[in-house]
Amino acid sequence: RNDEHHQDTYRQIHIDIPRMSPESLILQPKVTEIFERILFIWAIRHPASGYVQGINDLVTPFFVVYVFEYIEEEVENFDVSSLPEEVLRNIEADSFWCMSKLLDGIQDNYTFAQPGIQRKVKALEELVSRIDESVHRHLQHYEVEYLQFAFRWMNNLLMRELPLRCTIRLWDTYQAEPEGFSHFHLYVCAAFLVQWRKEILEEKDFQGLMILLQNLPTMHWGNEEISVLLAEAYRLKYAFADAPNHYKR
Predict the structure, then answer these.
(1) Which is nearest to 22 in space by CA: 55, 59, 66, 51?
(2) What is the C-alpha separation between 232 and 196, in angstroms, rounded?
(3) Tens-digit pLDDT profile for residues 58-102
(4) Backbone angles phi, psi at 152, to 5 degrees
């Protein structure tokens, strides 16, 4: 990390980690150190993309699940440094390889100009125009571009939109689904947007819509809400995935 060639990468990782959540966990010095190592090693092993903001969030669900194997309380309130060194090394290694496996399937989300995300946001727009024309036209009428809110949904795999417990439940399904992170996620995003249909149609200007879409009220969501979301996403997938022309008018 002292190599001049990698200084910018390390500096960006160092800036991004304190912005992550849950803060009570991430800001523990031992956790910060582990996350820095995971992200830095992944970045230098993947020069095609290197480190891109958003990748940092993708470590957290895996890390929390592996820590939880060794404790009986809420991870957010647990002092991770109290775990034995060997356990911490295993958690770090498992988190690294799980994140690497996830990113192998979506690396074009993070290469130059992030073409994977651009394509997925466009596909989301086309899908929503088919499944809920009223919502689509409403966003168009007030000049809301899908890229302005859905870029983050693709870049962070909805981590910034959902409580961590919901992200873990959601990703559990993605792991079990072929191309869960790269393909099924599109249908989850479409179901997620249409879920807020009533609130979206009540907003009557650009600013109100953007504030809503960037701060959707999911703080109290749990397994039940995620199960409903996933059921709707499966419905959309079976209606559209095998008939791509359904996207188009």
Answers:
(1) 59
(2) 13
(3) 999 999 999 999 998 888 889 999 999 999 999 999 999 999 999
(4) -65, -35
CB 59 within 8 A of CB 7: no
Q: How far apart are the C-alpha atoms of 81 and 21, rounded to whole Å?
A: 18
- For 120-164, what is each residue's pLDDT tens digit? 999 999 999 999 999 999 999 999 999 999 999 999 999 999 999
Tell me the longest C-alpha to C-alpha distance in the chain: 59
Q: Encoding tokens for residue 78? A: 């647990």
